[in-house]
Specification:
binds fe (ii) ion, 10 helices, globular, Hypothetical protein af1432, about 70% helix
């Protein structure tokens, strides 16, 4: 598993700095959420890191687009969930493929591991500058938006709210 993981990480860092930063931030948020919920930190770190593995197959020109993307491009981008799940299976990382496949599904019946990674992913995207086509929102606004979606379990959103505050503190003291 470590070999496949290193290979993906190396590819991510060579392909796109934003993808790497986003994935690392999601991984750290997932780890803190898992720690606070008494779950397997290492599993969630890896799950966060690999949730967007399918973006390795999306052209950089599309990942780095600074304006709103068109319908056709959106379809290509959407495929990263499916491609990621397939790629992870091919590399023997099956235990993370469901998360990659479902992390953009906005339904209320998502398994808990998918919910954890999905809230961390959405929060990171909403509050970060890298999403150049949309202005970042504050942490509070992002958390409010996640509540308003009515698809995530309250425990998961509350755990994210605590985790993001801890993550910010950790960042400042580094
Ligand atoms: Fe994604
Ligand atoms: Fe993501």
């Amino acid at each position: 598993m470590q070999r496949a993981l290193n290979l993906l990480l190396q590819n991510m860092s060579e392909k796109n700095a934003t993808l790497l930063t986003h994935s690392l931030n999601v991984a750290k948020l997932c780890t803190i959420i898992a720690r606070n919920l008494g779950m397997d930190e290492e599993y969630y770190y890896t799950a966060g890191l690999l949730h967007d593995a399918g973006k390795l197959l999306v052209p950089n020109a599309l990942l780095d687009k600074s304006i709103s993307i068109g319908n056709e491009e959106q379809e290509i981008l959407k495929n990263h969930s499916k491609w990621g799940a397939e790629l992870l299976k091919l590399l023997g990382l099956n235990e993370f493929s469901v998360i990659a496949l479902l992390h953009h599904q906005d339904t209320s019946d998502l398994p808990l591991p998918v919910q954890i990674v999905a809230v961390a992913d959405k929060f990171e995207a909403m509050t970060s500058l890298w999403r150049q086509y949309k202005k970042p929102v504050t942490a509070k606004e992002a958390i409010d938006e996640l509540w308003n979606m009515r698809i995530f379990h309250p425990t998961v959103i509350e755990a994210l709210a605590i985790a993001q505050a801890e993550f910010l503190t950790e960042k400042k003291t580094c």
